[in-house]
Amino acid sequence: MGDQNRAIGFDRKIDLGWIEMTAACAAMGLSAKEINVLVDEFLKGLIRGEDARRKTKNLLTGIWVRVSRGVQAYRDAGLGLLEEVGGKDRLAIHWGMCIATYPFFWDVISQIGRLSSLQGEMSLEQIRRRIIEKYGDRERVHRSVRHVVQSLRAWDVLRLKKSGIYSVRTPIRLGNPSLEAWLVESYFHAVPGTSIPFNHLTNFSADFPFSLSLGLNDLRLNPRLEVFRQSMDIDFVSLKRCGIFIPE
């Protein structure tokens, strides 16, 4: 059951401040080698064990530094937005980068969003069962789902209601069209080669921590997105003209 060889990547509990620090290093224009040294030094007082620290460092630099060529322009735009916004808006930027760089993160938060929409709260076991269907019944999958959930709790996105039972926090209203258009772009990096109907973009299960109110014109101002109309007068959005993806 599931693909036993599917990569996971996001397999540590990560504090938001650690992602902030890594992004700050990336914004300085330092080389990957220089950032590795700084992040490793930063984590020494926080994580015991060289192996655990190395894995955490790799996860952090995978979000903001060692990104694929197709995500580099998106990452650079995100760094620019970090210079403009503050407070809870910054969470949306790190959220978008986690989506764009780690498919496992996207899959877990998508299931959390769906379960929350269907029943209001969910158990860790319910999330695991859904992820196992795609990634296989492996110990690393079980452990990594727990790490993502623990990270979301640390980011104040999930609330522990009782042992093993979670609910989502009240969504954050962003109210920044440029930021919202940048955030929804992450979906196209998570599901590459697809077009998504515009009316699905503002209520994606993966954006459950945020309340979006962007319009088509906001998306047209994003230079990496394309808006076009297909049959039945439905507006679609994509990084390029490609297959159509209808979210669950």
Description of the structure:
This protein has 3 domains: 16-101, no CATH class; 103-168, Arc Repressor Mutant, subunit A; 172-244, Arc Repressor Mutant, subunit A (Orthogonal Bundle), CATH 1.10.10. Helix 5 packs parallel to helix 9. A hairpin with a 3-residue loop joins strand 7 (226-230) and strand 8. The radius of gyration is 18 Å and the shape is globular. By secondary structure, it is of the alpha/beta class. The strands form 3 sheets. The protein has a 4-stranded mixed beta sheet. Helices cover 53% and strands 13% of the residues.
Task: Lay out the secondary structure.
Layout: H1 16-27, H2 32-44, H3 50-64, H4 72-82, H5 89-101, H6 103-119, E1 121-123, H7 124-135, H8 139-154, E2 158-162, E3 165-168, E4 172-173, H9 177-190, E5 194-197, H10 198-201, E6 210-211, H11 216-220, E7 226-230, E8 234-238, E9 243-244
Parallel strand pairs: 4-6, 5-9
Antiparallel strand pairs: 1-3, 2-3, 5-8, 7-8
Helix pairs in contact: 1-2, 1-3, 2-3, 4-5, 4-9, 5-6, 5-9, 6-7, 7-8
**Helix/strand order, N-terminal first:** HHHHHHEHHEEEHEHEHEEE
Distance between the termini: 21 Å
Q: What is the spatial order of strands in the main beta sheet? A: 7-8-5-9
What does the main sheet amount to? 4 strands, mixed
| Low-confidence runs of at least 5 consecutive residues | 242-246
Short description:
The chain is α/β, with parallel strands linked by helices.
Characteristic terms for this protein:
three-stranded antiparallel β-sheet, globular, 248 residues, disordered C terminus, 9 strands, four-stranded mixed β-sheet, 3 domains, alpha/beta, 11 helices, Arc Repressor Mutant, subunit A
